[in-house]
Amino acid sequence: MKKNLLCFVLAFVSFISFAQKIPFDIKKSSVFKDEYKHSSIALVEDDGKGGVVVVRSYVGGAFSTGLGYYFEHYDANLKLIKEFEYELKYSKAVRQSSVLGIIMDGENVNIIDFMYEKDQKAYICSSMTANINDFNFKKNELFRVNSDEIKQFAFLGFGVFDRDSGARMIVNEDRTAFAVTVDIKDRNVETHKMFVFDQSLNKNIDHTFKRDIKDRKFVYENIDVSKDGKTIYVLGKVYTDEQKKKKEGGKYQYELTSITGENVKTQVFDSNEHFAASLKTIVLDNRLICLGFYSDRKDTRFKGICYYELNPTDLEVKKVKFNPFTEQFMIDKYGTDKDKELKNLFFRKIITTPNGDIIFNAEEFYITSYYYASPYGGGSTQMIYHYDDIVSARINSNGEIVWARNINKRQKTGDDEAYISYTSTAVGNDAYFFINTGEKVKKLSNDRIQFGQTGVKRSNLNVIKISENGDFDYQEILDDKENEVPFMVSNGALSGNSTFFIGRKGTKKQLLKVSL
User: Fold this and answer.
1) I want to staple 90 with a disulfide (CB 3.0 to 4.6 A). Which of 79, 94, 486, 500 is the partner?
2) Interior CA angle at 307 toward 292 and 403, to 5°?
3) Residue 107: left (phi > 0), alpha (psi -120 to 50), or beta?
4) Do residues 94 and 155 make contact, with C-beta atoms less than 8 angstroms apart?
5) How far is the C-alpha of 238 from the C-alpha of 216, rounded, in Å?
6) Interatomic CA distance for residues 18 and 26, integer angstroms
7) 49 pLDDT higher than 80
8) Roughly how many angstroms between the first and final C-alpha of the chain, as a whole number?
9) CB neighbour list of residue 2: distance below 8 Å, 6 or more residues apart
10) CB 479 within 8 A of CB 460
């Protein structure tokens, strides 16, 4: 990989402002160029010496089949120590391939891939492993599945018939273990092969998960791995004949299954008279939580947050709470017009605080389309992706809402969505959100504000803080006039109290580190 350093740019930039409402520290790498225009941060890991290892994935353009990774080792000031490019290459016998993810074990980096070997008539999951000091990659097979067991029409999760088809990799929050799940071909029985490994690639679980129900009636909500890598939790949304007879609420039930190397347990629960369109699992040391938005009328118009707490050992349901959105949240969202409900919410990130509270983040996302007629006949349709308001709520250990806030935002794109949306994190018991805006913050009625549209040509980086008690504040971190490149705020990567962004403008790129 060749990088053309721009001599008029300092090797790094460090900026600290003592007059900040929200204290932060910024460091920038030098501006550089890659062979490939498009890349995104796949992983950031502390090197234990104050520096970081940054892994960026890239794909070639329209006339290139390039696929691979840039490995970059930076010191504490984002000065580049070492770099290495690893291009993925496969033998002619490989007919299909996909990288599932990356996980590090000390100074060893593991690239986990899943590919179809025609000669062996098998799908093989392997690890390409190297030490960051020499990047001498070696391949190691983790497991294989006979080709006749896997659905051919939906390889690696891109099938339109079954959203859980193919293979997926799930890494736990502490990045100490990961699972790989493979959908097995069986129309009458929902079947997945599930494997769990620790970060050193030791296999802890090899299990075939089966549910005696047609595949299309079992929807995987999410899969989580415990901190010790010894348990995998599978949450499914199941449409049964019994649930169809319900007079009120969602006509489905949720099933949470815990799987270890020795046994399997399942707990069934539903949302009673409410609708809970989707739930998310949070695995803590001594608590197992399922959180989601609920409605009283239909699945997509939300009234509040539902909370289920289970015993992680025997899956006994200990607490169930349905929390309506707070008065403060409704004012944030709608001003004085409170007779409304929220829709189009999608989970973005769940954060646990040192005192055991949960910060639950989501975003309003929806798609519109426009047809453009050609004066010469025919036309074209353009899809517009909308990323609007941010919803954040803090839930205490009793399952009650401490605060819920709505951050008003209007952003849309028909092209590259990397510069819009947001990245969230938490430091201590405070929540933070990084967003770009291309215009001044707009004032709304009832002491509210709204962040607006951004783009590559104009993109100001802001940080929003919601304190432990729900107070709201924001600060501009970088004006676009201070930057040679705009930063891709939706693709931030976290390491400790720092968040990393890659910036891009044309062929120029730059790495940004924001510490809170």
Assistant:
1) 94
2) 85
3) alpha
4) no
5) 9
6) 13
7) yes
8) 32
9) 33, 35
10) yes
What are 111-130's pLDDT values in tens digits?
999 888 888 888 899 999 99
Cβ neighbours, 10 Å, residue 88: 16
Identify the pLDDT of residue 16: 34
Where b means 16+ CB within 10 Å and e means fewer, 193-213 reads bbbbbbbebeebbebebebeb
Beta bridge partners of 112: 101, 127
With a CB cutoff of 8 Å and minimum separation 6, the contacts of 119 are 93
Pairing of strands 448-451, 401-409: parallel
Which residues share a beta bridge with 68? Answer: 58, 87
* Residue 212 three-state SS: coil
Which two three-digit tokens encode residue 66? 């390039």
The residues, any chain, with a CB within 8 Å of residue 115's CB and separated by 6 or more, are 90, 94, 96, 97, 98, 123, 124, 126
CA distance 137 to 120: 23
Q: How far apart are CA 71 and CA 85, in angstroms?
A: 6
- CA-wise closest residue to 509 among 129, 35, 17, 74: 35
What pTM was computed for the model?
0.86
Residue 274 identity = H
Q: How confident is the model at residue 272 (pLDDT cuts 50, 70, 90)?
A: confident
276: β partners:
294
Q: How far is CA 291 from CA 18, 358, 362, 389, in A?
A: 39, 10, 12, 19
Q: 503 CB contacts (<8 Å, ≥6 apart)?
A: 483, 484, 485, 486, 487, 488, 509, 510, 511, 512
